Amino acid sequence: LAFAEQQTGHPSEAEAALHSAITADPADSTSHALLAQLLAARGDLKSAITEQQTALRLNAKDPDGWSNLGVLHAQAGESAQARSDFEHALSIDPQHAQAKANLARLNAGASKQ
Question: pTM score, two decimals?
């Protein structure tokens, strides 16, 4: 339902649906991760990072989640934390393409400074 609401341009309803899902099952890491994406899309990076961290406390072996957290940290200007997140994703899955690409982009940006 939250996906449908977000895709049809109803982010408030999508957020409400995700909060309801989290209330019904606070241990569902997917709902927290989806809420993190929704919050990031509306520019609330601090809350998005908090939700993604919650998702990872519930499912710490999720390389996609760690890569997503790295993207959020990078968007928030927290390069060192982003690097750590991407490296953590790669420690779980050394072939994780997105984490590799994100880490390379982050390192390329750092070398230009």
Answer: 0.86
